[in-house]
Amino acid sequence: MDKKKLLYALAGMGGVAAWLIFILACTGWPAWSPDGSKVLFILSNADPKSRDRAVALYDRGSGSATALYSYRTTTHDVSLMAQFSRDGRQAIFVLSRNDDQPSEVLSLPLNGQKPALHVVLPGTKEVLLAPFPEIGGELFMGSDSVTRMNLTTGDLKARKLSEGDGILLKQAGDRVLYVLFEIQRPDHAGKGMQFGELNRDDLSLKPGFEFWESDQEKLGIGDLNGFTLVPEAGGAHLLAAAKAGDRPVLLLFGRNGVDRIIRPDFPAGCRIFSLAWSADGGTIYAALLVPGADKNDQDLVIAETPVSGGPLKMDPVLTIAKKMSDASESAMSLSLSPDGKTLAISTGLVPSDSLKSERDRALFLIDLSDLARKVTRVPAPAFPKAAIKAAKE
Asked: For strand 247-253 and strand 238-244, is the pairing parallel, antiparallel, or unpaired?
């Protein structure tokens, strides 16, 4: 995949292809440790000319955030993604660059007892998209191939895609679901997406159903946002944001395609950029950008809507500048704590000119056990003076 080529090809397109622009940005998905005591989140440097990236670690017990890892460069852009291993003993960083160098994985033991594991992914330039499935001590990553990496030995197995421009992998328990995008068929106009399940042993794909631009037209929807795709626990359903006319809607995918369209009473002029399920699967959390009181502002709001329908609850988080780009929106993602009681979202990758002040570059924690939905702001820590870089500059 060539990111610049995709950008120019997709900039004027709607439908299934429009969401692919998200690969041009990093993902700011905050990663919870398995016990919910810590959160990893990604930062960019406040200097708009800088290409630096860092991973911060927030410890809920101490209330402190520190920069755990940084990547500094003046020659290229880098997408940096982070998550905890399922046993909570490692912080896993995945780096993709916008030059001709391959992607890399760094596994950093948090107890300091083992050396860091650094693995280059040959022939893999852009890896989509944290959180990456991890099952049985193996990490699964998608790009224009599917790659499996052993987190102990670094051993790799890869399988090139036979069609499509890229693949997104999502974990549902011990299953790996996939979305294959930009597929084409002689008997179909336009392009489509294929949904299915990955065979973890040989990395083959077991198709479930396909969803085409023409299917969107039949449903009266458009602007399907693949970045928002999130599986229900167990994988019975996938959820994604789209639009019906000028109003946001939610698509609930089942085993054979769209089960139904959920139409909450979202505010006029708002945009959905991230979704999450509640722990019991009964509520959907949607991160929205809503027109602000000032014409130059917009509000970051978390909307809560029952899956079965009902009143919409709106929880304000932050006011930001209205000129934020689509790529900047994709740098913010919702993440639910393991106990289901706290939502996290980070503005660590939002450009400085989209923030009201640098104080707003932070991790935000929304307490779902509090009826008032108390929001805790964790300021971004300073970049470390010493930087750890990937293997090649």
From this structure: antiparallel
